[in-house]
Write a structure and sequence with these properties.
Elements lengths: L7 E5 L4 H12 L3 E6 L2 H13 L3 E6 L5 H15 L4 E4 L14 H29 L2 E5 L12 H21 L5 E7 L5 H4 L25 H11 L10 E4 L6
Helix pairs in contact: 1-2, 1-7, 3-4, 4-5
Length: 249
């Protein structure tokens, strides 16, 4: 499939995990990709991988919680490619805390990246997406749909992303811009692989039974994101797709 021929896609969180897999997937389908991430060298490696898969790619160091860096990243995309057809907000941060011991600065950090960062990217990109009739795909989580103990900040941020996405979908749908979300769960990524747990965590309250045979990699989420961001998703707006092996079913 070459669903992204002549399309320009900005992917945040492109250094690893679902963001990297998304950048590589749309590049394989012909996209010109802006690989944005705070980890500059890893984002550059993703851009190189995207080029090797047949797409065009540039990388940009970007802290999505900083309005100046977000504006510069979108400006670079427009300067380099002249337009923007899709924005995939995948950048995220997860930490686990006993809620009553959580520092305000830790709460703010999670929300500033996951929720405010998504908002800032959408706000900067929307004028250009309106010009192309483009679309937005935001990364929410199964934490927005079911309780995640010790992950209160993360759950709040991802619930916010889901509500924010639906609001965008209604506000901008008649102007030709779609907004959708994905809610991954039971996905093997670097973010979840080495997660530090606070003292006293009862893992039986976190791990739910998954009906499928095994957790899968970020490429399974990237395929759904690519569908939503392409013309195959032309009549999908204000929706979320849960990608969790049936865990919440």
């Amino acid at each position: 499939m070459r669903r992204f021929e002549d399309k320009v896609v900005l992917v945040t969180g492109a250094a690893s995990g679902i963001g990297r897999a998304t950048a590589l997937r749309v590049a394989e389908e012909g996209a010109s990709v802006i690989c944005a991430d705070l980890q500059a060298e890893a984002a550059q490696a993703t851009a190189k991988g995207a080029e090797e898969r047949g797409g065009h790619a540039i990388s940009r160091a970007c802290d999505v919680s900083r309005p100046d860096e977000v504006a510069a990243t979108v400006a670079d995309a427009l300067s380099h490619y002249g337009k923007l057809d899709a924005l995939c907000n995948i950048a995220g941060f997860l930490r686990m805390d006993n809620f009553h011991e959580m520092a305000l600065e830790d709460w703010n950090r999670v929300l500033s990246i996951n929720l405010t960062g998504t908002m800032l990217m959408c706000q900067a990109a929307l004028p250009h997406l309106l010009a192309t009739g483009g679309n937005i795909v935001n990364a929410s989580s199964t934490a927005a749909l079911a309780g995640l103990p010790w992950g209160t900040a993360y759950a709040a941020s991802k619930g916010g992303v889901l509500a924010f996405t639906r609001a965008l979908a209604i506000e901008y749908g008649r102007q030709g811009v779609r907004a959708n979300a994905v809610c991954p769960g039971s996905i093997k990524t670097p973010m979840t692989g080495g997660l530090a747990m606070p003292e006293g965590v009862d893992l039986t309250l976190i791990h739910r039974a998954m009906p499928l045979d095994k957790p899968r990699g970020p490429e399974t989420v990237a395929g759904v994101i690519a569908m939503l961001a392409s013309e195959d998703g032309a009549h999908i707006n204000g929706e979320y797709i849960r990608i969790d092996g049936g865990t919440l079913s």
